[in-house]
Specification:
Layout lengths: L4 H10 L6 E5 L5 H12 L2 E6 L4 H8 L4 H12 L8 E6 L5 H13 L4 E7 H8 L10 E4 L5 H7 L3 H8 L3 H21 L3 H10 L2 H22 L2 H19 L14 H8 L3 E7 L10 E9 L2 H7 L6 H4 L8 H15 L6 E4 L6 E7 L4 E6 L8 H10 L3 E6 L4 E8 L2 E9 L6 H11 L6
Parallel strand pairs: 1-4, 1-5, 2-3, 3-4, 6-8, 10-11, 11-13
Antiparallel strand pairs: 6-7, 8-9, 9-10, 12-13
Length: 447
């Protein structure tokens, strides 16, 4: 499989100011495979260690942080030559050994010439981050999410579309839009969990993909009881099970009665299983300073969400109509997922206090705030966008739908206008680059 994060890891390798790399993400997003693939492709030797089951290995790090001693034990444990520059040392499941997490600081300070990379689950690492042993400022951190839609296309042998999408050749893509819409429906069902994608890519086996998703979901539920008390597990499970029905509602706001800081929501967030998108009441620069009392809660993967919703396989044949009450939920989940994969980790939305107007996502750049509206079908009404841009003076707005690419100028009044870009949903991952492209041509004024 081709993962975009590989290029980021290569840049890490080539960086002369490189610190130990810490690759983090939810369970089953492909962290271990990616790290080993990176090592095999880019180093002469890979010294792989996993703390998952080896007490002896953990004790090596618990005895102290003398780097020379640690390197000698790594050589013995792996049977590999461990040489600066030419060897990648992989410390897998590092959350199982707090001392190994702390050791990254000493590798950074005492042996920067060695290439050390660690892999860990978000939940275990967050538990360590508040302690004194976490190497704050001594590691390069890289988040890994489920496979994006373009990575999904690559895995299915449809990589030719990816190049055209990334160079924004909208005229050529217009011809292939029906095929891309079909592949997008596949993605809504299969999602981006690597094992599910692998099962599906073999023979376009939707049943195998769904069985894999159910297995992953069961594993998540087992984790609830493994890492939380019985009472906490009940609350975590209640919140987790409520997400499909909550996303299917027209009003998707979690209010203060389910606070983001409550233990169940925070637990799911720390595990990488949910992502919160906060409501802002004043969409200005530094959006985080204008948070309201509501937030939206999304899950980690659109395919897992479709499995939780028990969507039947016929959605792939009959199209959006059979998505029923979940089509809006799946579409918003999908766009959120593509934005995360594209590096937009600080996501917000806006809702008018006493009106129906709502903007699904606000993206904050150096030059201003850009509203993004999401439509599940070919609905080209843009009342919320018009209301938002008129009220806050935005010069650019994006609308994602099953329609084709288009760009138009919308005038509010003489001297007051904004550019509206219609973007096909299958190109949602290009939203950040389109905003950058527009900013280079016509800088966005700061409100």
């Amino acid at each position: 499989m081709k993962r975009d994060a590989l290029q980021k890891m290569i840049r890490w390798k080539e960086n002369p100011r490189r610190m130990p790399l810490l690759l983090i993400g939810a369970r089953q997003v492909g962290k271990t495979w990616l790290m080993r693939e990176f090592g095999e492709r880019n180093y002469e030797e890979v010294a792989y260690l996993s703390f998952d089951r080896s007490k002896d290995l953990r004790s090596v790090f618990e005895q102290g942080f003398d780097v020379a001693r640690l390197l000698a034990n790594i050589r013995l444990a792996t049977g590999r030559r461990v040489m600066p520059q030419n060897t990648l040392i992989i410390l897998d499941e590092i959350q199982e050994c707090p001392a190994a997490i702390t050791s990254l600081k000493y590798f950074c300070e005492g042996a920067p010439e060695y290439h050390v990379a660690a892999v860990g689950s978000l939940l275990g690492l967050y538990a360590q981050e508040g302690g004194t042993g976490f190497p704050v400022g001594k590691v390069d951190m890289l988040d890994l999410y489920p496979m994006s839609f373009t990575e999904f296309l690559e895995a299915l042998g449809e990589g030719g579309f990816v190049e055209v999408i990334k160079r924004h050749d909208w005229e050529l893509l217009r011809t292939f839009s029906p095929r891309l819409e079909e592949l997008l429906r596949y993605y809504y069902y299969v999602g981006g969990m690597p094992k599910a994608v692998e099962d599906f890519s073999q023979n376009r086996d939707f049943i195998a993909a769904r069985e894999r998703q159910i297995s992953i979901l069961r594993g998540y539920r087992r984790d609830f009881g493994k890492h939380a008390s019985a009472s906490e597990t009940r609350r975590i499970t209640e919140v987790w099970d409520s997400i499909p029905n909550y996303l299917a509602q027209e009003k998707k706001d979690f209010k203060q009665k389910v606070d983001r800081r409550e233990r169940p929501v925070q637990w799911l967030h720390d595990a990488g299983l949910v992502h919160g998108v906060s409501c802002v009441h004043a969409p200005q620069m530094s959006l985080g300073g204008f948070l309201g009392n509501s937030f939206k809660l999304y899950t980690t993967d659109v395919g897992l969400l479709s499995a939780q919703c028990r969507l039947p396989g016929r959605v792939l044949v009959e199209g959006n109509n059979v998505f029923g009450q979940y089509k809006g939920a799946l579409t918003e989940q999908y766009v959120m997922q593509q934005l995360l994969a594209a590096g937009e980790t600080d996501l917000f939305y806006w809702k008018a206090p006493k009106a129906q107007a709502e903007i699904d996502f606000l993206l904050q750049g150096e030059q201003g705030v850009v509203p993004v509206e999401v439509k599940a079908e070919r609905n080209l009404k843009a009342k919320s966008l018009q209301s938002f841009c008129k009220r806050f003076g935005s010069s650019l707005a994006l609308r994602c739908s099953m329609g084709l690419y288009g760009q138009s100028r919308v005038d509010h009044a003489p001297g007051n206008a904004y550019t509206l870009i219609d973007l096909p949903l299958w190109a949602a991952g290009e939203i950040p680059s389109i905003i950058e492209e527009f900013a280079r041509r016509a800088p966005i004024p700061v409100p």
